[in-house]
Amino acid sequence: MARGAGAEQYSSANLLKKTEPNEVRTGQKSEEKRHLSVCNKLCYAVGGAPYQITGCALGFFLQIYLLDVALLDPFYASVILFVGRAWDAITDPTVGFLVSRTPWTRFGRMMPWIILSTPFAVMSYFLIWYVPPVDQTKVVWYLIFYCLFQTLQTCFHVPYSALTMFISSEQKERDSATAYRMTVEVLGTVIGTGIQGQIVGMANAPCIPVGNDLNATFRNSGSEANITQPDLSLDKVRNAYMIASGVICAIYVLCAITLFCGVKERKENSKVHSERMSFFRGIRLVMGHGPYAKLVMGFLFTSLAFMLLEGNFALFCSYTLGFRDDFQNVLLVVMLSATLTIPFWQWFLTRFGKKTAVYVGTTIVIPFLITVVLMKSNLIVTYVIAIASGVSIAAAFLLPWSMLPDVVDDFKVLNPESQGHEAIFYSFYVFFTKFASGVSLGISTLSLDFAGYVTRGCTQPKAVDVTLKVLVSAAPVALIFIGLLIFTSYPINEKRRQGNRKLLNEQRELESPADSSETELVNTGSVCNRLKLHVFIHHRGSVSRGRQGTMGEEMSPDKKFNLITRNLQEVLGEEKLKLILMERELKVYWGTATTGKPHVAYFVPMSKIADFLKAGCEVTILFADLHAFLDNMKAPWELLELRVKYYEQVIKAMLESIGVPLDKLKFVKGTEYQLSREYTLDVYRLSSMVTEHDAKKAGAEVVKQVEHPLLSGLLYPGLQALDEEYLKVDAQFGGVDQRKIFTLAEKYLPSLGYTKRIHMMNPMVPGLTGSKMSSSEEESKIDLLDKKEDIKKKLKKAFCEPGNIQNNGVLSFVKHVLFPLHSEFAIKRDPKFGGDKVYTFYEELEKDFAEERIHPGDLKASVEVALDKLLDPIRKKFETPELKKLTSLAYPSKNKNAVKVNPKKAEEEDEIIPSRLDLRVGKIVGVEKHPAADTLYLEKIDIGEEQPRTVVSGLVAYVSQEELQDRLVVVLCNLKPQKMRGIESQAMLLCASVDGEPKRVEPLDPPEGSAPGERVFVDGYTSGTPDDELKPKKKVFEKIQVDMKISDECIAQWNKKDLITKLGKITCKTLKGGSIY
User: Residues near 655 by Cβ (< 8 Å), separated by ≥ 6?
Assistant: First the structure.
């Protein structure tokens, strides 16, 4: 049975640059024209008959014709069959590419190809069945006309197949027309088999007896009619083939005329313009779409199975089964059975799904293929097997063309910016199947040559019988099993197919031009065109307003883009974002792992979510509970559900506090879909592609980094990438710290057949200590439920150096939260310092702070007031007994948890680790001698707080006042304050020291460019929380200090781990091997 199709590369949207001047349709009429009449469908279906009639005749009879009528050597016959099929495969994508470059005509873009190729195709087909008088020219003759016919037939069938996507925009109509087409095409195979078989069957080629024993076998089986009949010449057989080809040529012409007269090529109302692309880029495009690649590979093997059966069945019936006079009747039964069961398979795939139809339809034939080679020759049983084979062939014939539109639709949904490439998908499918079939036919014919096939022999050697059994039974069965194995990973199920259909219908409704407002006019010229344009704009405006709802006034795509991207640090995929906004609303999601308690920095994404909603976006909020567990078990499994409930209440309270309507949002819990079979399989598939290096790199700034990382942390980035697909969004929004996860998603999702998404990133708000605000670092954050006095205390300690706008968490909070929410910010201060001032532009506020016109204390006090207003509604909500209980259960206190879960936790509180030290960068802003001690200095050290701290140090004998003035140093800030000679020392300045004569001492040096207040960590201990105050009796610093040394590279270390800030390592100038005090 012949298969093949192509489709044009570009959708009709490319051609909609002008409107027909004499035709403006009403909405009702436009709607009616979307539906195809039965006559339209029949005329369309008839157009597929020529391809199947000629293909079936060539497929079943060309091999035996070349061998027994044209009298070619099997080797040359195999060359002709292989080259012809391979050439046919190459012409499909080539013609598809050329068709896509063809300009539109009054008859369309496909019809001219169909009509102009028909007469030449008919002539070349007729000449294939003519035997030239000179034997030496036979091989060249058949090669030329076989390849020429395949080329011209492709020029007919590729444009014809493209009409599948353009006869209607409705998927239901296309599927119905496809069923009509498949029925007629299978009927065409019956016609091709019947005409060729019955006409030629009346004049069987005379055979040559091969041995007396073989003749005796034929006599015993009652097949004397198969032996050469003297009164029948070879010339009559050749004439019969010519007559059959003439009849088929006439049918070919009639079908082409019917198609041209009964089908109108329609323009699709799409505003998305496809780009012209090169041939090889087209290959990369289609094979990069996972569902298409799996569909092609699966049907490649199942189609090969039936092509092997088709190409060798005539020889098998004639020689292995011994039905030389009946094989054409057996073929006719196969084709009739296939034709009659096409409607059944159409119903079956609609009722049970297309994947189920694939499995059932292609496996039905397997037991019969095995039976036919194991049983003894029996004509009745052979007819029964022929009927069963026809049932399976019908399924294998219908399903590829029913499923290819689903793949094209899936590609359109996942790549809305890349449309109009239908022809590439169709033509490359045919390319692969035809090229492979050419190889299979060439090899099968060559196999017969090696087995000792005797041209025109009445019987064949035993080796030929065995070869034919393999070619029609063992090989097809194996190929079917391979194809079905590939189909197990085909991702488009009925749910996904229906979802794609819904999305495309919504897109078409948004793009359809002014249906309901247009009027049936017969006017011509520019007046009509202007009227159409006016009505179209009016219609699009009303759709846009309807979708915008109550979230704000109607916005242009540019305004939406500016609102969506304002205050973002980076957007990956800006052009794609602009294209989507021109066509429809953006679908975006923001996810949060339900780990520690949310803090005030969460107002940054909340304020952006407010922007998204104002721009009309469809927003999903994901509570990523599974991610929270995978991230070094930040959320224990038994607390996952409680943490999700807490996060849901807090996030909703935050959104309500800034005036965001919750009814416009969709809330999803990760484990609602992340534990499904499909998601889990995708995790495994992704795990087989992502390297350990890429996974570790992607999670470096998000997943907790420890000395011995868990496997779960490596899975985390891949799951976040897959969420984009399973939430069905266009974009993911997150902090810039997730950039590496976003780039991992862009790299690997296309390998699974999923599209790249847009990624939008907000900047990370610095914490109160100058580093990233983190749930695990208590002093860097303000919790949403912190009391007013706690907020006041934390803000007082916050890093906010006068004039310093870098790494200033207080200033950043104003920029990224308060200004976007209120469009202004008020500085509250005493009248003697300038009084209150309201800023309506953040840039003005930043400028005044940089120029020290705003004191840090006034900025902190004003932020405190604004924060209390934001947090008051949240605190009040959580005063209810239910939410108080939820908070205590989701975040049990450490002491209670230690008793209930693990008694050893109490020991961990006394664990001597460097993260308990509050080490900071300080700047000495003043230094003088201690009034009561000649060996002591009094230093005023700025550590990022509102007032410098007083530090007493015994450095007089080692470092001059000039060296200390304005120097950056490292300060231990959580020692208990202690009076030294009557003056309280509020911190300790750390120095390197080497004993000896003389003793040498040098203050430690932070990295160049460090700012006062920046945290100093020991590498590997960056996530711990310092003690509020080190208890002198515990001797915590003294125990840690024992292992604090200077390396041979002059780097400060603890237990050979470097002391670091975010800018680099802590060092000293010269004291290698020294101790640190």
Answer: 606, 609, 610, 662, 665
